[in-house]
Structure formats: structure tokens, C-alpha cells
# Entry
Amino acid sequence: MDPIKFGTDGWRGVMAREFTFQNVRRVAQAISEYVKDDAMKTPGRKKSPLAQPIWIGFDRRFQSDAFAKEIARVLQGNKLSPILLMESLPTPAISLMTHKDSCLGIMVTASHNPPLYNGIKIKQDGRAVPETVTTAVESFLDKTAPVRGSDYKEKSVKAVYLAYLKSKINPAAVAKGLKRPVVIDYMHGAAAGLMEELLPPAKLRTIRTNHDPLFGGTPPEPIEQFLAPLIAAVKAEKALIGIALDGDGDRVGLVDDKGQYYTPCQVFPMIIDYLITKKGFKGKIVQSVSMGYLSGRIARALGFEFQELPVGFKHVAGELAAGTAVIGGEESGGYAWKGCLPERDGILAAMLLLEMCAVLKKTPSQIWKDVETKYGKSCFKRIDVRVHRAVADKAVWAAKLVKKLPKKILGTEIKELIQVDGLKIILQGDHWILVRPSGTEPLMRLYAESDSPARTAELLELAKKWVGPAT
# Structure
């Protein structure tokens, strides 16, 4: 049988190769076994996990709805209580329902991956499940042959999700403060049509709204190389801001009023500065280790604790859910903050960015200029390099690399080494390099940030030499 392994955010595979109906049934059966095993371990609960609903959602990928129906049939065949969404909605909608019902949720999506991929995310209590759950699900794979039922409930939760969004950020107040149009790029994803439910049509210009399983020929990932249509639309419309939403609507990309793309290492500091200085947030700030140095500078300047975590929003969500952090972010464009679900939400982040412009009465470029003036410039870039074989143990690999490091890198002394997820090398002046093995693929992910594009490029070229020749 094909091996199935949950990564940083679920299980993904190429459709008709790894991601097949047979393998989806195997995963659904394993989830069913996990739920039944969990029920056996805690018999004293007021409401047994067997009686709790299990919400199932899907994105707009090819046959995502069919895969979701098959999951519902397997869960029903195991005498569980699946509820299939009646429409494609962003992943945070499923997270919301698991929070409301204190239950499990399953989302059929491959997020930002190319059109050939699909995947499954598991949610619980408003966020991604911890590794203990996915490890347990993996342990139940193929213990029992899939059992298929024939009937399951269907329900629409679009209104519930929209009500949640409106309860967190006032759309009317935001709309009143917007003096120029806003361009929303749905990238053909599951969030399509939702911003129109929050803001007046006169304020919006939307692109890539239609259902296209091929996503127009590019992955639905809100990064600069895939946002040419958004950049062009912002310039043509003389818009205040351009916002892109990824395939399952839980992450954002930002283009400013001048048509300039901002990296998450720029967007997250803008969000932090606004939430602290204008909305009175106080507490620890957390981010993935692949994020930039401005977040830490803001935390130190304002006297707040700061922590870097392994890559994967589930680690950020864990801190938010526990109440030990108030703001969290990750390098791929996911953000969350206290008072909302401990889950990244692209629509909610988009509304916050619009609120920032409305309240501050500034364009994104002006907001960024303020942050840059106070805390410094950020020039971030990431590249992926294929190598001969996957790294089996990241910690062992990082320890070996540490021994090979020179005392100075490009003439600058090393300030700190962080071995959280690969090896992050921080230099004097806060410039840094992160070398992070994929773990499941023969791939090295290289990240760097400095105060100039040329310096960042030099750091990445040096990191490429460390990881060896590409395949």
C-alpha cells in the first residue's frame, strides 16, 4: 500500500498517483478508528466523541467535493456523525465549526500547491490538530478495511462563517474609511465571493473569481511570482491595496498602492505594530523560525516577549490557543491574533489590513514606510534547492553544519545559532540565513533576510554552497 504521511499541514499527494479514492478511504478509516479509540479512552464524557459531529469541507480543486463525499461515507459507515458542507468554503470555516462544536473537522484541500495536488487537513478546537493526533491517525492506517456507508448529513455554514468574520472586524466602519477601490485576487480559490458579502461592490474590484481547477495555470499561492494579474489590476484601478487569497483561503498576499508586493516579513511587522499601538494588544509575539527580524525588534522595543517556533502554523496556533501568545505569524502568509480563532484566516487578515488603512488614513506604502523608519528595512527571499537525498534527521544534519561554519559570514560575525527547525544563523545587525531540510523530499529550503536585495542574494548563494550541488 502507498505510504501516507502527514506533514506540517496535513497529507498531500498528486491526484491519481498518491491521492486516490482508495487512499482517501484508507485515511478516512484511520480517522474513524482514531475517533473510536479516543471515545474508549474517555468513557466519562458528557457527550461521547461518537455522537459529536465531524465537519467535512472541500476547496475548489478537481474532484475535491467527490473526495469529501467519500470521506463522509466512510465515517458514516463507521457509525460516526459526519456533516458535509453544502458549498466550498475556506478552511477557517471548518476550523470555526470544530470550535463551536468542540469536535473534529476534515478539509479536503492542497492549499497553495499546484493543480495536480490534493490533500487532507484535520482540524480540532478551532485549529490544526497537534502532531500527536496525526501520528495516532497514521498508526491506525490499514488496521481495518474501509467501511462505506450510504447516507450522511449536508449543511451550509456560509452564514455562520460570515457572522464570525463580521463579529471580529466591523465591515461598515472599514468601508466608510476606504477612499479608493480595493482589488481582491481570489486566485480561483475557495474564498471567491466572500469579500463581496462584507464590503459594498463599489469599494471592490475582484479578479480570478471563477471556478477553475487548473487555477489559470499557476499554483494558487499568494507570492510575487504568481501575482502579476493582481499587480496589473492595482495599477490599472489606481487602487488603495491589492490582496490575494490562496487556494483554501487561509493565507494572504499583499500588493501596495504602488503595485509593489510585500513579503510576509514586511506584512507581519505592520500587523504587529498596528495591533499593539492602535488596539492595545499586550503579550508574547510568536512566529515561525523562517520569519524576519523586524517582529523581534518591535517586541523588544515595546517590551514584549518574542519566540520563534518550528515551521507550521500548528505551532503558532498552539501558543495562541494556550493563551501564552497574543499575535502569531508564519512565512507563508498566515496570521492570527488574540480574540479570534487560533487559526490563520485569509479573509480575516484581509479585513484587518483594510481596517489598518481606514483607521490610520494611510496607504499600505505609507504604513510600511512608518514601520521601516522605526525598525529598519527588510529584504527577504526564499529559494528551494533539490539535493541528492532527503534528510532523515534535521537535528543531526544541523549539528554537522554548525561544525563547518566559519567564524564570520561575508565579513560579519555570527550573533546566534537557532536549531529549531534546521539551522538559522543570525549575524550581527540581525541579518540571517535559515537552511531547512524538507524532511520528506530531497529538498533544501533556503531563506535569507537583510537590509538590501544584494546582501540577501549573497547570503542565499553562500547557503547554496553549504548544501552541496543541486541534482
Notes: Residues 379 and 454 are 9 Å apart (CA to CA). DSSP finds 14 helices and 22 strands in the chain. The chain has a mean pLDDT of 93.
